[in-house]
Amino acid sequence: MIPKPARAKPAKGRRHASAAPPASTRTRKDAHERRSAILAAAHPLFLERPYDDVSIEEIAQRAELSKGLVFFYFGSKRGLFVELARQAAQELVESTWIPEGPPPVERLRLALVAYVRYVRKNEIAYKWLMSQGVATQPELSRLVSETRDTLAH
């Protein structure tokens, strides 16, 4: 009869393989998902409270990511805020774009209707950006000017 090999004892402080904790059900997000999660977590916070009352820690916690990743993707709280404003400006431009075809007066009417619809849908963000946001942050002032120029052409 062949003897069974002796089972090796785990090293001190180490668990036996069968006693390992269950695998986590949490999956690692890719870069796009992490960046999107940060933006999605930050957006309502900036709408609910003044800029200075929103913390990177709270944004990271809501995104279920580390604070370091917020800085990695956006550089700073201001960088994150400006990116949210840039996305809103892009959405405004896209939602008010009217293709060539209708006569100029009809295109203008359609663009104005689309603009008002956008403002109503995003009323809180629009008011904040157009009042205190532009006055306190030069990057936003430039962004608003560029958006206005784009809409005018």
Please, could you describe this protein's structure?
This protein is mainly α. It is built from 7 helices and no strands. Helix 2 packs across helix 3 and helix 3 packs across helix 4. It is elongated and about 50 Å long.
Q: What are the defining features of this structure?
A:
153 residues, single chain, 7 helices, mainly alpha, 66% helix, 0% strand
> Helical element count?
7
Main sheet characteristics: none
Estimate percent helicity. 55-70%
The overall average pLDDT, rounded, is 79
Shape: elongated
Structure described in brief:
About 65% of the residues lie in helices and about 0% in strands. It is mainly α and about 150 residues long. The longest helix has 20 residues, at about 75-95.
Topology:
Layout: H1 31-48, H2 56-63, H3 67-74, H4 77-96, H5 104-121, H6 123-136, H7 138-152
Helix pairs in contact: 1-2, 1-4, 2-3, 3-4, 4-7, 6-7
